[in-house]
Amino acid sequence: MKINVVLVILIAAIISLSGQASLFAQDSSVVLEQFKKSFPQVKVDEFSKIDIDGLYEIVSGGRVLYYFPQKNYLFAGAIWTPAGKNLTNARESELLTKKIKEISLKNALKIGSGENIVLEFTNPDCSYCRQASKFFSEKKNVTRYVYFLFSSKDSEKKVKHVLCAKDKAKAYEEAMTGKLDGKKLEACNDEKAVMLLNEHKQTVSRLGLNSTPQFWVNGKHVSGANIPLLESLLKNETTK
């Protein structure tokens, strides 16, 4: 378990000052004003006091930061519980899930018609994405809504090929099982496919996602190809 040492030292310092409660009895609006003056380059989407004395949470572009006004310090790092829970990651996941509820599924690639709803952000050249795709392809009680996130020209060509295909679900499976690897794909300039590709890019940008795979299984967020967790979130799942 990786723990941000600086943040641990910070928390220890706060605890040592716990007897000086008056130091932290500041109005949040005053603290926010102090923060903005000290760190004008940091965009503040949300600002609130958390249940660690003297520590404030800043949400900036989906990222969670911590501010200690007593020393006028800004910290980036994870807060862990003794049980090993990463509270920072859990909070960022919660914020991302709120954003997810605002996006439309109409531009996603729909695969299947089962009762389990899976929103999937994937890359056809990502090995972990392929592992997770294989897992879901073996489930028949799932409806998948797929958005693409890619960073290379080769990946973009594969995504365009999928979005141009008459049978997009089949083309998607070909891409995710490696059948398109090394193939010279014909350039696709279909207007609707190009529009869909741009919609995928814009959706990913709005969400601030920068890694794959990412899933929401029946509303619950899973980062990475955590197959046991994905399995546990499926309701009444059956295999083909």
What does this protein look like?
By secondary structure, the chain is α+β, with helices and mostly antiparallel strands. The protein is 39% helix and 18% strand. The protein is built from eight helices and nine strands. The protein has helices at 5-16, 28-38, 87-100, 127-137, 153-164, 168-176, 191-207, 227-233; strands at residues 46-49, 56-60, 63-68, 73-75, 109-111, 116-122, 142-148, 214-217, 220-223.
In short:
This protein has a five-stranded mixed β-sheet with strand order 5-7-6-8-9, sandwiched between helices. A four-stranded antiparallel β-sheet has the order 1-2-3-4, with helices on both faces.
Topology:
Blueprint: H1 5-16, H2 28-38, E1 46-49, E2 56-60, E3 63-68, E4 73-75, H3 87-100, E5 109-111, E6 116-122, H4 127-137, E7 142-148, H5 153-164, H6 168-176, H7 191-207, E8 214-217, E9 220-223, H8 227-233
Parallel strand pairs: 6-7
Antiparallel strand pairs: 1-2, 2-3, 3-4, 5-7, 6-8, 8-9
Helix pairs in contact: 5-6, 5-7
